[in-house]
TrEMBL record:
Transmembrane segments: none
Organism this protein belongs to: Zhongshania aliphaticivorans
Protein family: Belongs to the extradiol ring-cleavage dioxygenase family.
Protein name: Iron-dependent extradiol dioxygenase
CDD domains referenced in this protein's UniProt entry, alphabetically: BphC1-RGP6_N_like (cd07252)
Gene it is expressed from: hsaC
Amino acid sequence: MDIRSLGYVVIESTEPQQWLDYGTNILGLMVAPTMPNDDNVYLKLDSRPYRFAVVKSDVNKLAYCGWELPDEAGFMAAKDELNAAGVSFEEASNTEAQARRVRGLIRLQDPSGNGLELFWGGELDYAKFISPMGIAGFETGDNGNMGLGHAVLPAAKLVETHLFYKNVLGFGDSDYMHFKFSPDPADPGQGLNFMHVNNPRHHSLALYEDQANPLGCVHLMLEVKDVNEVGYCLDRVEAAEIPIVSTLGRHTNDNMLSFYMATPTGFAMEFGTDGLQMDWEGFTPTVTSLPSLWGHKFNMPDA
């Protein structure tokens, strides 16, 4: 399967307007000018009509990651491959696909219950991105072909879920980490698989071994092109008294200089710059024992 990028995320929220304020005044995203004016919130950061869809719901969670296929032939082949693997999926109606601003769409779940959508024919509206916070641009590649950033999803069934993304959906391995949180030799620890799709971003997906995560997400990541924008955003977060989930630091495996903050939904948002862009030909997946070169001291906010 030839998945090209993380095209969009769909977030369910009891109060979408919280994301309107957070998305524009903290993250510096733009209200999507070509999306409907309804009870939902659509946020834009490049030439795509939107990247974040925050929809009214009676729960707060990440509902779907939308993964982009190259064309209709790739979309049809993906459905054939899912059928051959015995993976069930739901075909979205034309109306539902049009609402996502794509030409074809199916929905399914991974073995850990995370929702995903596979689509082809994502639109470009070319509406100029004008950040209310003055951000010149986010790193999403040419016409957004590197996707909005990355998602880290909880995986109660880590091994099975990792094999699903690798063997069924065609993701590639980038890196693996394993964490122990106590000196007890019997502590089994938790695994973390970093995975890439067919673009240069070091990872578009990571799977974290997590047995109980009602939010459906560990964190999302946005990447800006200027290191100063990371500092400006950090200043906005502190001024707004938004919980800082992790201090500023630089990761080992993807080189990202970033910090993490809480979102209105409760999962974290990584805001960073300078992430590696890889040449996957001949690449050997790595196993990393140190998550960051410096910084990134985590302090999860109380639920």
